[in-house]
Design brief:
By secondary structure, this protein is α+β, with helices and mostly antiparallel strands. 19% of the residues lie in helices and 35% in strands.
């Protein structure tokens, strides 16, 4: 089995998920259930939920999301004590980030770490990688570049 096959499969899964999110976002407005001639229901404040974004869109408009809660799917690459959420994985071993990326801050739970791919060659730098869904808060002005502080992280069901 080619060692790059899992990386290519991961990249394909991320691409499919990104396309699904784009198509879902293009849906039209829901039909109104208010009968003609009646008053519309009183507006209520929307819940303070995390904003679902694609990683490309998030990085492209990072300043608009400073201090806000977001949810985003991407490729996690953790190496040398630094974790990044990447738009794509380069086909190296261990893989490296390709495309836009964000530094991830916070603890990654053992159940997630245990499901990530990892280097097995003792001569290589230890690295972990895989597709994750991260919810967290953006700091667009962090020293060293924008960061995403984890409030939750999981392996998406399709990964």
């Amino acid at each position: 089995m080619d060692i790059l096959t899992p990386i290519k499969a991961t990249t394909a899964v991320v691409s499919v998920v990104a396309l699904a999110l784009i198509f879902a976002a293009c849906g039209g407005p829901a039909a109104s259930s208010t009968p003609p001639g009646s008053a519309p229901p009183a507006a209520s404040a929307p819940p303070a939920a995390a904003l679902d974004l694609g990683l490309d869109a998030l990085v492209a408009s990072i300043g608009e999301h400073d201090g806000k809660a977001v949810r985003v799917i991407g490729n996690l690459v953790a190496q040398d004590g630094v974790a990044r959420l990447c738009g794509a994985l380069l086909e190296s071993y261990p893989p490296q980030c390709g495309g836009p990326s964000l530094k991830i801050l916070g603890e990654i739970p053992a159940d997630v770490v245990n499901r990530l791919d990892r280097t097995s060659d003792p001569g290589l730098t230890k690295a972990l990688w895989g597709t994750v869904l991260v919810a967290g808060t953006i700091d667009a002005d962090a020293a060293g570049g924008p960061t995403l502080t984890i409030t939750s992280i999981e392996i998406p069901p399709s990964a």
